[in-house]
Records
---
Amino acid sequence: MTREQYLSSLVPRMYKSQFDDKASEVLADLCPEALEHPMAVPIGQIATEKLHLKIKEYSLSEDLSILGQMCFTDGLVEIYDPKEDEYREIQVEAQTMIIDPNTYLKRNHGCKRNTVAHECAHWIFHRRYFLALEAFEKNRATAYKCPINPKDEQFKDVWDDIDWLEWQANGIAPRILMPRETVEEAFQMIIDRSKKNPFVSAGFIPKSKWILEQFAGFYQVSQTSAAIRLTELGLLS
């Protein structure tokens, strides 16, 4: 078996229809209460206290094209130093998650939480793949930088192993933050609140806009992510 064949055998075989189940498995193990009632999933606490990951903040790219990175082994990784306007290497320990601080400063809190969930998904589901790379690397951490732009599913036929891993983490992360089991209850709760809001009832605030803002705020995710999730579950048209 070649190196490429061996590594490909470690890529989890998942369908998109399984992403909700995979997210539920994660929460059942690490935060079961999130499956029982609506709540903002404490993803940072899950990462540090349950998965025993270390979260560090460093810039990863000059243009914020890379939001996060999961380091699977000890070694050197490349970061971007904005003060010196250059890329340099630093030593990191295994189980270190690097989050670009600009993920929050230049985007939003929800984006940062989604990035943490994304890196957790890599650690949980893809660790075997990246640890296998250790045998082929010298003096460098086995790590993966996660690009901001999602993979275009139209080109699945030419995806490599890393493309598939990134697609899986992209799909599972928002489902961890907005689990299928509680989303409908939370959505209905916010609809009920909208009926009691005089500004919404009077039409001064568009109802759909207010509901989306409240839903995103409740789960502490971006409004874009919230809209996609609600649409997927048939709650938002």
Note: The beta strands are 54-57, 66-71, 75-81, 86-92, 96-99, 143-147.
---
Amino acid sequence: MKLTSLTLAVIATLGVALSGNAQAEAEINSPVRVAIDHLGVPWVHKDDSAGLWRERPLPHGQKAIATAGGYFHYHFGTGPDDKGYAYYEGATFAVGEHGNAYRYQNYDWQSVVGCWGAKDVSSFTVDHAYCVNGDGTLKKFNDVSDSFEGYYAISNEKIKKIDVALGGVIWAITESDKLFKYDGVKWAQQKVACGDLCTLVDIAVGGGQVFVVASVYGSNDGPQSVYTLNNGNLVKFGSFYNIDVDREGVIWAISNYTRTLFLKRPGMSEFVEDVQMSYKVSTNIGS
């Protein structure tokens, strides 16, 4: 029975992946995802006809500590030789263990200056990509200069984690365990009712929901789990170590128990384990 269930799960996952890939090639934008394994090595996945996770280490053997997936465009009839071709938008980033930022271009990681002692990075498009600088402020990516620039700060707070949502709206967690939202004009603190009983670890926004990775006092699910934010209350979502939502509404999560990657596409009732990454222990996912 166990073997039969596993076989059916694999077939179902492959079927979903294949149907998703076929659909992706008909879309203008499709996700590029990045998972960081337990050795700190990034794995890149482009949702095209190949749909494979490929190991893409950072330069000089550096470990990655944070990542942000981007998108690629698929054009028809505009290539010099082909009826259609795909190219990267350039909104995929990673942060190395020494706080240096990297951008994924031409199938490799390229160093990006301007953000030092970086703690996190997130992007929605290449026009809305930010890194968390070592001083707890944000810097925005400038595609013309190919560097992080500017200064986005929350008064009397130091930012530690961010997620850039639809339209470039920024959600941020500060070192004092407060949650803020930036609409392009001002920062507004968001209510989180658990107070001193929880530590906010990470944030992911997408599909109409705000997901908070938190360590909650009294929880039996390990050091951290995923919750949804509902009127200021943290509602248990799942026993996951980390979570992210891509532009197509696919939820990617790392299991608290196996530390392997799971996904849930729109219309699916349950999470399924990603077949290709089922043997890889992961620590972070960005898309």
Note: The helical segments are 2-24.
---
Amino acid sequence: MANWLTLRRSARQFADSQSSTESRFNAEQLERVRNQQRSSIVEVLHVSTLWMPNLTSICAQMAQVANAPHESESLTKVVSIAEFYSNVLTLTADFDRALITADLLATDVETRRCLEAIGEAFLECVTLADVLDSDSKAIANKVRQMIESITKLGQAVSDLRGRAVELYRPPAPQLPTPPLRSSQHQSDAAPTRQTGPQPTAG
């Protein structure tokens, strides 16, 4: 009888130990996945933030081309934009890789929607920035469209940042609050003060 109880206790302890180990393993695996997701989204936000000034600069130069009074000045500015644009395009591979990685790791529907919006707006900006013609009217139209695309990109980046904070920011630690003492308890615990004359012994 004693042996049976011992074996039963050992089996229960082993099962509890296995359950605890499995639970710890699952928690650690989940945290690793969350860290990968967090890192991939941070990379997208970082690259997006770097891209915004470049796209805004291209847009401003395109506006100057559209408002150039002389055709020769317009052509000069187009060449300048084309050179700047070609330099910018060399960085698109890093941005595409960051977007693809984040999209593959993301499991949240809203996060994937934000990533898709960023990719679409960024593609619009890059396409509109290719101004190799000297038609001022066409360039002016592209400027308006690019301003809209840059605005969309900024909003999508802001949405992704907000969603990432909501999903991955750890909760603030809560400080323990001391238990409140009831007024009755305080009155019972408080010493009584006698104001009248004290009786003398004997």
Note: The chain has six helices and no strands.
---
Amino acid sequence: MRPSRTSPVLALLLLLTACASGAPGASPSTSAPAAGAAGPTPAASAEPPAGPVVPASCAAITLETGARIASTDLAACLTDFVRAAGSGRFEIRQADHVADQRWALVDGGLYAIGTSDGEPSVAVTPDTGWLHSDGGWVQADPGGSTEQMLAADGVDMYRATSSPETTYAMITAAPGFTVGERTEVELADGTTTSLWPIRADAPFQPVAAIPATTTELVVWTDVAGPTVRMDVTGDAVAGDGQTYSGTATTFFSQWGQGVDLAEVEELVGAPLPLPGR
């Protein structure tokens, strides 16, 4: 993503917080994940999959106006559900820019392909990755050329945003959450649907090492687990002392539907060992 009118540190804050919410992997919860379930797509409907199967950890969440939710309970539910789904897609919109990721989780780790403003940007497998630069792919190699070392840094950061530990830590950094009144909200395709807002009770710093604050975080959902949309607003103080603000909106879709990762297969040079094959 190449955000405009925001500092790099703020862009990273928003990217980390929004991406982490869709990150595949197990949470530090002891709840056993359930079998994956198909989910809504922004272009079709925000309704949850028919008879969605959600992790036991989501039973701690009550969706009714005014209900309080502990940060640890929300973090466990969200990350357990993503692991149960096993694959999906999300689109992040910030200012005039759009980033997209399709991902699939396997026992060995993550397969993912990302785009920025419609152009390929990053591809990841459990043991390697590529950044797209000057019209071509550069494979990550921390001991290679300057371009390859930069690619390695970028791939490592991308993996960090998809880490279940990062997901869990960021959500639990919030002081708590409260369910708001069910409201009509806009989806990625411009249509609207009625969803529950789960809102952080106060601003918080999601990453101790980053001098930035999430001033507002809202998770929009119909059923506890399969998130439909997330809104994240943040402030950051740059090295020159200037404060920057920005908002990122993430739309989640294709939960458990087996997303297309043909670009990654082309880079690997072989079919990916994805579930169901």
Note: Residues 146-161 form the longest helix (16 residues).
